[in-house]
Amino acid sequence: MANSLYERLGGTDGISRLVDDVLEAHLNNPIVKTRYVNARDLEHARRMSVEFFCAGSGGPKPYTGKDMLSIHKGMNISEQEFVAVVDDILDAMDKNSLGEAEKKDVLAILYSLKGDIIRV
After folding, report:
1. Considering the entire predicted model, what is its pTM?
2. Domain ranges of the chain
3. What keywords are annotated for this sequence in UniProt (predicted)?
4. For residues 30 and 15, what is the distance between their CA atoms, to the nearest angstrom?
């Protein structure tokens, strides 16, 4: 049996490193930087992102945060911002030496959420 995406991403430790690299990229990305610099509680967002990635990739613990629509409602996130975030995630995956199969699986998850994030 193939390992779960959670295992292939390095479990909680690997996902934590990935999320840290993604947030660092967002804070340096001129397209989305202000959304993260001005975040009310970036550490909470980080913890919830780790939890979301862990649970969504087949990890053992549940995600306890809000659903994607509730989180993003009223933020008026553009298609350009969504693509910038996805690009940051893919770059962080490269930095963490994750493979093409993992990138395709993560992309599929991200794009399945697009309707709950963009312009809601």
Report:
1. 0.94
2. 5-116
3. Heme, Iron, Metal-binding, Transport
4. 24
